[in-house]
From TrEMBL:
It comes from the Bacteria. It comes from Methylocystis borbori. Residues 19-115 form the Thioredoxin-like fold domain. CDD domains: GST_C_Metaxin (cd03193), GST_N_Metaxin_like (cd03080). This is Glutathione S-transferase family protein. Residues 165-226 form the Metaxin glutathione S-transferase domain.
Length: 234
């Protein structure tokens, strides 16, 4: 068995700059599956996005479908210890992270000039110097258009900050004093929540939302606990 995970690159203390890649990495580790990383596969991504995996010739794109694949092929039930209600809540929390907090994170990283230079600008280091400014401008415009189409880009900065603080407050409240989202053992949703909490806390982007997360000791401890369990420092 050989699983290849197509991903981006580590950044600012994160296993990968993309929370979706970090989620996929965490799921593979939670399932006890070995994998190798390939950081050269973006141009061949079947859905134009990463992550995706090649599992002995079977291509699976999107972090959620990677989870479904792991559960079906390897018989791993990430939520075996959860009630049906907890499974439903976990799904809702994942979608809040992936369909709402994600766009706030994108806006924070890409639309703020200082944050862009601190983080995403580094992604263009492999582009020839002469073409780099044009490439940066083109991609930032493309992302700005995506933010506008999705809706987050239509809000003012203060409005986006207010939405982000609500997400952080919700995550902090749900985790509470528990080690993981639903108690003493991690579940599938923890892979997603961890990926996004870690991304928000990363110094890649300074923001009111990051400050709000840093002010929640339980979120910082949760991030650290997941990092020690799945991405220990050598």
């Amino acid at each position: 068995m050989t699983i290849t995970l197509y991903c981006f690159q580590p950044a600012s203390g994160l296993p990968d700059a993309s929370p979706f890649v970090t989620k996929a990495m965490t799921l593979l580790k939670m399932a006890g599956l070995d994998y190798v990383e390939d950081r050269t596969g973006f141009s061949k991504a079947p859905k134009g996005k990463q992550p995706y995996i090649n599992d002995d010739g079977e291509i699976v794109a999107d972090s959620t479908f990677i989870r479904f694949h792991i559960e079906k092929k390897y018989g791993k039930d990430f939520d075996a210890h959860l009630s049906e209600e907890q499974k439903a809540i976990g799904w809702c929390v994942e979608k809040m992270c992936e369909e709402h907090l994600y766009w706030i994170l994108v806006h924070t990283r890409w639309m703020d000039d200082a944050n862009f230079e601190r983080g995403p600008a580094r992604f263009f280091d492999s582009v020839p110097a002469a073409a780099r400014p044009l490439a940066k401008s083109f991609i930032r415009r493309k992302i700005a258009n995506s933010l506008w189409a999705q809706g987050m880009g239509r809000h003012g900065a203060a409005e986006i900050e207010a939405l982000g603080r609500r997400d952080i407050e919700a995550l902090s409240t749900l985790i509470g004093e528990k080690p993981y989202l639903f108690g003493d053992a991690p579940c599938g949703a923890d892979a997603t929540v961890f990926a996004f909490v870690a991304s928000v806390l990363s110094p890649m982007a300074e923001s009111v939302i990051r400050d709000a997360a840093l002010a929640k000791p339980n979120l910082v401890a949760y991030r650290d606990r997941m990092m020690r369990s799945y991405f220990p420092t050598p």
